[in-house]
Design brief:
Largest sheet: 2 strands, antiparallel
Structural class: mainly alpha
Radius of gyration: 31 Å
Distance between the termini: 104 Å
CATH class of the largest domain: Mainly Alpha
Number of helices: 18
Number of strands: 8
Oligomer: single chain
Strand order of the largest sheet: 1-2
Shape: elongated
CATH architecture of the largest domain: Up-down Bundle
Number of domains: 3
Length: 479
């Protein structure tokens, strides 16, 4: 049995509880820990950091407006700074699925900071008479404005890595686009032969999709910079100094290093609505929709190696089968698709939570925070791994691409300009019936000469807007 002195006795409005003597958290955190043995998942580290930034900013702002003793403010700021630097993470024990609005997370932060500040001032853990978690650490604040603000800061800080990952992926695809620019192949629509494209053009579209994704994330992130801190419980700013709202915003900008933070135009909206989080999640969902499409494309293009398209090969990063020797699978593309499905699923959860708030508050913020920050993290990691271990090492099979180009029935599309759609269709049917290529049928019917065919079917003529009729006239004049 634990020794009696391994605990300290704390009291709150519900009664007394024994708290581990060396714990920096307190009775309210312990109650939440016992109430919510739900997932075993704790607050995201970046949310803990962002919450500490809010507490630091609040302490400095309250000191500036004359509400908080400077010595105690300094101790609170020092304790918060230690958390920001990565300290005391084991003291944040509350499950991610917890009390509505994140009250338990807020009190976890208040109690850890209060106890550490008390210790700094020479007091003992659990002695709230020196630095009280509610009266001083939570001064001029409510869970209702602290947690959404912390989530905004956390999402912005996390998204730096996501934007970097998207940029790296775009650049990797752009390099491949240039590398493959002279490789002509058959395009495919409806998974059937279509007009020719250059492999570089396909990869260029992937790069452009990543650029668009970056723009969407950046735009959504800007809305997260509208901060409702100072709104306290319902948007009115009750229990705050008139200058506090502006002071705390300035201090939060310094603490977080985020440029462009601004006061929310309507503090009531800032507490009652979670649309900005849903919009950021929605931007990630759109990114994932594109990533699934890219993943599917790459898996199709590398299918084979002997019975598929095999126009490209992906880097072999691990054996692909426990039973088939030598088999290699497109595992990085598969992983990216699975991560994308997960992020799209969490986006739905965020959307449901965002619309589930009532009146002056959305109490579903904890599940929004868990899903939003989790999705940012895994999407960032997935993109980095996909870029490094897949995109950067993709190789093209020029011969295979050329084979499909030369044997595509869609080459008959060029004939529309010279013999019309109906007669061109007849050429395609004969090709399919006899097994001859489109070129062989065209030459046999005397529709074009070998020289004319060669002139028209150059990749540069077929993969960009070109006046093919004028080209053919020039060819005939040479003769």
């Amino acid at each position: 049995m634990p020794k009696e002195n391994s605990y300290r006795l704390e009291r709150d409005s519900l009664g007394e509880k024994r708290v581990p003597a060396k714990a920096y958290y307190g009775i309210q955190t312990l109650r939440a820990f016992e109430n919510f043995p739900i997932s075993g998942i704790k607050a995201a580290p970046v949310l803990i950091t962002a919450t500490a930034m809010v507490k630091l900013a609040a302490a400095k702002a309250n000191a500036r407006v004359g509400l908080l003793d400077r010595k105690k403010a300094d101790a609170i700021c020092r304790a918060a700074s230690e958390i920001i630097k990565g300290g005391f993470r084991g003291e944040f024990i509350v499950d991610a699925f917890q009390a509505g609005a994140g009250t338990s997370h807020n009190m976890n932060a208040n109690e850890v900071i209060a106890n550490r500040a008390t210790e700094i001032l020479g007091g003992r853990l659990g002695d709230n008479s020196i630095v009280h978690p509610n009266d001083l650490v939570n001064m001029s604040q409510s869970t209702n404005d602290v947690v959404p603000t912390a989530l905004r800061v956390a999402a912005i800080l996390s998204s730096d890595g996501l934007l970097e990952a998207l940029d790296k992926c775009e650049k990797a695809f752009r390099r491949k686009s240039k590398e493959f620019d002279n490789i002509v192949k058959s395009g495919r629509t409806h998974l059937q032969d279509a007009v020719p494209v250059r492999l570089g053009q396909e990869f260029g579209s992937y790069a452009s999709a990543m650029k668009t994704a970056t723009e969407r994330i950046t735009d959504a992130r800007e809305r997260l910079k509208e901060i409702g801190l100072g709104a306290t419980a319902a948007g009115t700013g009750i229990n705050t100094h008139p200058r506090y709202r502006y002071a705390v915003l300035a201090e939060l900008s310094k603490a977080s290093g985020i440029k462009g933070l601004k006061k929310a135009p309507d503090t009531f909206e800032a507490l009652a609505f979670s649309s900005d989080f849903a919009a950021f999640s929605g931007a990630m969902r759109l990114v994932c929709i594109d990533l699934v499409k890219i993943s599917n494309d790459l898996r199709l293009l590398c299918s084979g190696p002997n019975t598929g398209l095999a126009e490209i090969s992906l880097p072999p990063v691990q054996p692909g089968s426990s039973i088939m020797p030598g088999k290699v699978n497109p595992v990085m593309a598969e992983m990216l698709a699975m991560v994308s499905f997960h992020v799209m699923g969490t986006d739905h959860a965020i959307a449901l939570a965002a619309q589930a708030g009532q009146l002056e508050l959305n109490v579903m913020t904890p599940v929004i925070a868990h899903n939003l920050l989790g999705s940012i993290g895994i999407l960032t990691n997935a993109l980095n791994s996909f870029t490094e271990k897949c995109v950067s090492g993709i190789k093209a099979d020029k011969k295979q691409c050329a084979f499909y180009f030369e044997n595509s029935a869609a080459l008959a599309t060029v004939l529309n300009l010279f013999i019309g759609y109906d007669k061109s269709t007849e050429v395609v049917k004969e090709s399919q019936k006899t097994g001859q290529s489109i070129k062989e049928v065209v030459l046999a019917k005397g529709i074009m000469t070998e020289s004319e065919w060669g002139r028209l079917m150059r990749p540069e003529n077929l993969t960009r807007p070109t006046d093919l009729k004028s080209l053919l006239k020039k060819e005939k004049k040479k003769k």
